[in-house]
UniProtKB/TrEMBL annotation:
Species whose genome carries this gene: Pseudomonas marincola
Source organism, top-level taxon: Bacteria
Biased composition (Low complexity): 292-308
Protein name as annotated: Metal ABC transporter ATPase
Disordered: region residues: 286-318
C-alpha cells in the first residue's frame, strides 16, 4: 500500500518559455514572454523541427534539468535511475532524476537539480531516512512531516567534470558545465548535471526508493510505495556503464530484468545540440554503447518483471 508524502497545488508552479541560440561553440538561453503555469507549460510541449542541429535560434516551452547521479556503494560505482510513468508522453521509462525548472531558478538550474535529488531519491536505513548536503548547503527535507530524517548522518553530493561546450543563461556561464540538448518532441531545453553521491561509512542496510509527483484530480501528489521501489542502479566499471541493472534493499543488491525496458531520451543519440527520440530500448542503448555483461554473475536470478511494466504507446505521441 502506498503512503502519501505530500500534496501540492500545480497552479503554484510557474515557469517561463525560453529563447535559445546555439552555435558550434556554445548555447545560450533567456526567458521569454509571460509566466506559465503547469498546464500551460505542458500545452506548449509539442514537436518542433530544427534544420541545422549546430546553429539555430528557437523558442522553447521550458527548461528541464536532469542529474546523472553516480552512487558509490561498498566500493563500487553505480548510476541511479528512476522509473516513471510519463502521462504527457504515454509511456513508462527508466530515466535520470529530473524535473522542471521554475521561473525563479532559471538562472540557477543547479538549485533545481539538487532539490530533485532530495525529492526523488529516498534512502532508508534502520535508523531513519538520509538527508544530504551539496558542499556546505543542506538539501531540503521535503517530506519532513511524514518521514523521520536522521540528524547526525547524511550523504554528500558533489559535481563531476562537465561538458566541453559552455552553456549560458543570458550572459552568465553555468560554471558546472552541464550537458545541454534541445529535445524536439517536447520543444524543451534540457540540462544534464553530472554528480556524485558519497554515503557515510556507517550506513550498511540501505534501501533505495523513488518518489515522484503525479497529477491526481487536479493535485500533484507524491507517494511512497514500498512494493515498487522504482529506483534502479546501473553498475559501472572504470567509470563506464555495464549491462547490469540492479535494485538495493536492506543493503542487498538484486539483479533486475532488462527485458522490455525503455530508457528516456537522455540515453538516446544526440546530434549536435539536438535529441530527436522520445525514448530508446535498453537493448538498443546497450548495443550502441557496446556494453559488456557484468564480470561476475549475481547469485540471484533477475526479477522477471520488465516488459509488462514498460509498455509503450502504439503510435508516436506528439
Amino acid at each position: 500500500m502506498s503512503r502519501t508524502l505530500i500534496r501540492k497545488d500545480p497552479n503554484a508552479f510557474k515557469t517561463l518559455p525560453l529563447f535559445v541560440e546555439a552555435d558550434p561553440d556554445g548555447l545560450a538561453y533567456s526567458s521569454l514572454g509571460r509566466p506559465l503555469n503547469f498546464r500551460e507549460m505542458l500545452e506548449r510541449r509539442t514537436t518542433i523541427e530544427i534544420e541545422d542541429n549546430q546553429r539555430f535560434a528557437v523558442e522553447l516551452a521550458n527548461l528541464g534539468v536532469s542529474v546523472r547521479l553516480t552512487l558509490n556503494w561498498q566500493g563500487r560505482d553505480y548510476w541511479v535511475l528512476v522509473r516513471q510513468r510519463r502521462a504527457d508522453r504515454g509511456d513508462v521509462v527508466l530515466k535520470l532524476i529530473s524535473g522542471y525548472v521554475p521561473a525563479h531558478e532559471l538562472n540557477l538550474p543547479l538549485l533545481t537539480a539538487i532539490q530533485e535529488v532530495a525529492e526523488e531519491c529516498l534512502m532508508e536505513t534502520p535508523e531513519g531516512w538520509l538527508a544530504g548536503r551539496f558542499g556546505e548547503t543542506w538539501l531540503p527535507t521535503p517530506y519532513q512531516g511524514v518521514l523521520h530524517y536522521r540528524e547526525a548522518v547524511n550523504f554528500r553530493l558533489g559535481s563531476l567534470s562537465g561538458a566541453a561546450r559552455p552553456v549560458r543563461c543570458s550572459n552568465l556561464t553555468l560554471l558546472e558545465r552541464p550537458r545541454a540538448y534541445v529535445h524536439l518532441p517536447t520543444a524543451s531545453l534540457q540540462l544534464v548535471y553530472d554528480m556524485r553521491m558519497e554515503l557515510p561509512k556507517e550506513v550498511k542496510q540501505l534501501s533505495l526508493f523513488h518518489a515522484d509527483e503525479c497529477l491526481e484530480d487536479g493535485t500533484l501528489v507524491a507517494r511512497l510505495d514500498r512494493s515498487k521501489p522504482d529506483l534502479y542502479l546501473i553498475a559501472l566499471e572504470d567509470g563506464k556503464p555495464t549491462a547490469e541493472l540492479l535494485t538495493l534493499k536492506k543493503g542487498e543488491l538484486s539483479p533486475a530484468s532488462t527485458r522490455g525496458v525503455w530508457l528516456a531520451e537522455s540515453f538516446a543519440a544526440q546530434d549536435g545540440w539536438v535529441v530527436r527520440d522520445e525514448r530508446i530500448r535498453w537493448k538498443d542503448w546497450a548495443k550502441s554503447q557496446q556494453l559488456k555483461a557484468p564480470t561476475a554473475k549475481s547469485p540471484a536470478k533477475p526479477k522477471p518483471a520488465g516488459a509488462a511494466d514498460f509498455k509503450q504507446p502504439q503510435a508516436r505521441q506528439g
